[in-house]
Amino acid sequence: MIPAATDPDLQIAIDGALARIRERAVELGPAFGALADAITRAAHGGKRLRPALVTASFDACRTDDANASAALSVAAAFELLHTAFVVHDDVIDHDTMRRGVPNVGGEFRLRARDGGAGAEGAALLGDAAAILAGDILLHEAFRLVAMAHTDDATRDRLLTLLDDAILVSAAGELADVENSVATRHPSRGTTLDTAFNKTAVYSFRAPMQAGALLGGADAEALRVLGDAAGRLGLAFQLVDDLIGAFGTTQQTGRDSGPDLRENKRTPLVALARESAAAGRVDEALALAHTGPVAVREAQSVLESSGARERMVALICETLEAVRAASDDPALPDRAGDLLRTLADGIEGRVP
């Protein structure tokens, strides 16, 4: 089972960071105060996977409680980092709703409308507010790590992990957008690299290495754990791609097949295009946006191409490599147990 962050002390750490933003914001005008409130709403809800991975890795590797406070601060930082990426993603995707309610950009579009702005002005204010909200959250994530109660050497290594997570994720996001607009379809290798960079590093590798570092893991344990965590992150994203194509409404939170309707160029699609059915795949995906019947046809074509079966096999192969790494003698026993638990949880999400 994939862990969820339920520690009340973690919630206090997140709430404290958000409260600091609000306290500063109210001094800087009503619009900025409204932005701080929107940021707070954006940071609430969700599974809080990334902070859970920080604290779980810390618990799996620690020998004392010396860095317990720092672990909570770093866990909160990864949650705010995730929120920043989500807010910016919505701008990139031109989305104004999330979880059935207006997101940051959507709220400020409504604010602009209430102030008499037309459609163009509302879009301008909405996008500006969302970009600024993401920037503020990124700053606060760095601030939480920089202010963590730990020694200077550990703090420097934590900041390096956070820096790497942000840069690699930005590269993955840019590649994802570029893949979507290119006239040539990306190869399987390109889509896998994009999936890894966009998700695996900031969602799994960096949080787990950060928690383990604070727990006292040595360099070899951090290397083994980081490699395994990267594989977990890739498998997690590949399962998300399957859910986006074949998942139920309950799994996606939207109508079935949202990735097909948006014609996303995922590893699943790349696998389908490697088959003899490539032409049918392109035709079916080009029509998937037209409605549920076309979505079911696209699902059928992907299934008959063998892409779904090959994707499941790739996920299982990736998770088996994680399970093999979990037995590495460099890892504490509890860290190995955590890797196996996470692998089982990800495998259990396969639709």
TrEMBL record:
An example Gene Ontology molecular-function term: metal ion binding
Essential cofactor(s): Mg(2+)
Family annotation (PROSITE patterns): POLYPRENYL_SYNTHASE_1 (PS00723), POLYPRENYL_SYNTHASE_2 (PS00444)
Keyword NADP recorded: no
UniProt keyword annotations, A-Z: Magnesium, Metal-binding, Transferase
Any single biological process term in GO: isoprenoid biosynthetic process
Keyword Magnesium: yes
Record-annotated membrane-spanning stretches: none
Protein family according to the UniProt entry: Belongs to the FPP/GGPP synthase family.
Protein name, per record: Polyprenyl synthetase family protein
